């Protein structure tokens, strides 16, 4: 799959600057003797930024969110929101005092309350008129004023998720946490709902953290992606940074598909089965490099390969080719027609990414 970068960009992307959330050296084990679920996590989120926590099942995404929300306790570390400690040495602020909004996978709406009542429920320290006014405002923001009197079962999944978002936004939190908020929606609704939610969060200037295991969702929704593996941060960066410049084989493989190729580096170039390649950084001796399948193109001349098999995907085709002992994936436009067993030539575009670690 070729992820679509910047699928939607409603509103200005926030400038990095004012830090809203700071997480420092967060660690957690669910039981003594068990492996750490969070292992010395440190990161920051800036005002108006949307950060996606991405990674395989069990890597600690939800636990990170629940510790920030106050539903789980950490063994160590600090969490600061707008400079105020939520968690720290001798500090544990109750969830309702954190000024953090939460949106869950299953929406968690009260079935016996209508839309207005669901949104008003979270509003404290206001008189009735102020609560009604704020509820109208946020329902306007999520485009649901006309459904104000409906009950959750009278709404689509996408509309219910927008009510849940309105409820989370109503008390004007400093941070919204969203745990797999689109995963209960079918593919088409998931796509439009996440565009709407992104536009609403931008409009409100809200800072948000989204947990997802869907790489395309992370690439298209977030300003930055934090890729997690076994309780640690594997890489954090903008979608193009993590997709185009993966630092490890794990990141290269988790985000899209990649060719991992052994090569011998000498400065900014390396010799490989795909010929002499330009490297993303200087290296010396044996290296493992990553080249995206869309950066290998069929040409009239170049490195000879043999087509082993093809996967037709409509908009494009992925060919698995052999190049000496190595298998390489090549994404090509669907107007390329190569038969299995046919010889072809390829060239590599751009820089090959030098990988570290495992
Ligand atoms: N209450 C709990 N008690 C014991 N272990 C737990 C508890 N909650 C989570 N775990 C374990 O902690 C690890 C991390 O879980 P977590 O839910 O944070 O991962 P995740 O990355 O969000 O996974 P998924 O994508 O499957 O939701 C997993 O191995 C999980 O089994």
TrEMBL record:
<dbReference type="GO" id="GO:0005524">
    <property type="term" value="F:ATP binding"/>
</dbReference>
<dbReference type="InterPro" id="IPR003593">
    <property type="entry name" value="AAA+_ATPase"/>
</dbReference>
<dbReference type="InterPro" id="IPR013611">
    <property type="entry name" value="Transp-assoc_OB_typ2"/>
</dbReference>
<dbReference type="InterPro" id="IPR017871">
    <property type="entry name" value="ABC_transporter-like_CS"/>
</dbReference>
<dbReference type="InterPro" id="IPR003439">
    <property type="entry name" value="ABC_transporter-like_ATP-bd"/>
</dbReference>
<dbReference type="Pfam" id="PF08402">
    <property type="entry name" value="TOBE_2"/>
</dbReference>
<dbReference type="InterPro" id="IPR008995">
    <property type="entry name" value="Mo/tungstate-bd_C_term_dom"/>
</dbReference>
<dbReference type="InterPro" id="IPR027417">
    <property type="entry name" value="P-loop_NTPase"/>
</dbReference>
<feature type="domain" description="ABC transporter">
    <location>
        <begin position="21"/>
        <end position="255"/>
    </location>
</feature>
<dbReference type="InterPro" id="IPR050093">
    <property type="entry name" value="ABC_SmlMolc_Importer"/>
</dbReference>
<keyword id="KW-0067">ATP-binding</keyword>
<keyword id="KW-0813">Transport</keyword>
<protein>
    <submittedName>
        <fullName>Iron(III) ABC transporter ATP-binding protein</fullName>
    </submittedName>
</protein>
<dbReference type="Pfam" id="PF00005">
    <property type="entry name" value="ABC_tran"/>
</dbReference>
<keyword id="KW-0547">Nucleotide-binding</keyword>
């Amino acid at each position: 799959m070729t992820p679509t970068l910047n699928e939607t960009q409603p509103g200005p992307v926030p400038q990095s600057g004012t830090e809203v959330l700071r997480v420092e050296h967060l660690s957690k084990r669910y039981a003594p003797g068990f492996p750490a679920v969070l292992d010395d996590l440190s990161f920051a989120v800036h005002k108006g930024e949307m950060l996606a926590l991405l990674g395989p099942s069990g890597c600690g995404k939800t636990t990170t969110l629940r510790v920030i929300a106050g539903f789980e306790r950490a063994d160590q570390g600090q969490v600061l929101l707008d400079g105020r400690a939520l968690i720290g040495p001798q500090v544990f602020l109750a969830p309702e005092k954190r000024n953090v909004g939460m949106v869950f996978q299953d929406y968690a709406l009260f079935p016996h309350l209508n839309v207005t009542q669901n949104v008003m429920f979270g509003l404290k320290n206001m008189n009735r008129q102020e609560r009604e006014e704020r509820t109208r405002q946020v329902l306007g923001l999520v485009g649901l004023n006309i459904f104000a009197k409906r009950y959750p079962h009278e709404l689509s999944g996408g509309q219910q998720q927008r009510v849940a978002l309105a409820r989370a936004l109503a008390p004007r939190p400093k941070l919204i946490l969203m745990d797999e908020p689109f995963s209960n929606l079918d593919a088409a609704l998931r796509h439009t709902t996440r565009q709407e939610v992104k536009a609403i969060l931008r409009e409100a200037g809200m800072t948000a953290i989204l947990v997802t295991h869907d790489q395309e969702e992370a690439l298209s929704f977030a300003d930055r992606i934090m890729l997690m593996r076994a309780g640690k941060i594997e890489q954090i960066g903008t979608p193009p940074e993590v997709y185009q410049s993966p630092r490890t084989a794990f990141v290269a493989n988790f985000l899209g598909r990649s060719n991992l190729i052994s090569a011998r580096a000498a400065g900014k170039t390396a010799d490989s089965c795909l010929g002499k390649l330009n490297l993303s950084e200087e290296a010396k001796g044996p290296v493992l490099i990553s080249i995206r399948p869309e950066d290998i193109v069929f040409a009239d001349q170049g490195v000879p390969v043999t087509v082993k098999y093809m996967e037709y995907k409509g908009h494009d085709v992925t060919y698995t080719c052999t190049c000496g002992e190595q298998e390489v994936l090549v994404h090509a436009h669907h107007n390329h027609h190569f038969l299995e067993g046919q010889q072809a030539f390829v060239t590599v575009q751009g820089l090959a990414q030098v990988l570290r670690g495992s």
